[in-house]
Amino acid sequence: xxxxxxHGGLVITxxxxxxxxxxxxxxxxxxxxxxxxDAAEGWSADRRIDATGKYVIPGGVDAHTxxxxxxxxxxxxxxFATGTRAAAWGxxxxxxxxxxxxxxxxxCQGLDAWYAKADGxxxxxxxxxxxxxxxNPSTLKEMDLLVAEGITSFKGFVRSRxxxxxxxxxxxSCGVAV
Length: 178
Hints:
By secondary structure, this protein is an alpha/beta fold. The chain is 21% helix and 35% strand. The strands form four sheets. Strands 1, 2, 3, 4, 5 and 6 form a six-stranded mixed beta sheet that branches. Strands 7-10-11-12 form a four-stranded parallel beta sheet. The N and C termini lie far apart (57 Å).
């Protein structure tokens, strides 16, 4: 397993700014130690990165992206390949994109279509929110399957279909179409 030491930088965490060295093993941060301490000096590594005078920050998460999203007869300019490459250059290491259910299709079918668009093309980690396009009793039952698969958020639109995209959420009450 590869090991990297990032030394000499100012490490920014969720709660602190500390002058520390960082030990990365297999792509994951496994330890922090103050500069010059026996612990930091004792780390062996395949690679050493000098971060003197620099900030060392964790990768960012962009929790609202629209890669290859169709809207109004057009598509978002970014593909999963181009959008995630740009994200990585900016320090974003994870995106959460919107998978879209097709009208008349199931949620799992919509999620599978978005996985097919993203798999093997992304430069960063990714996850999905699910956009509901066709809410009905069958769709509502599928939500539990998606939650078990790791989808933790769902988006629906409440407006009349003649005003644009609607998921029919306004026509559902207590899990039963009305």
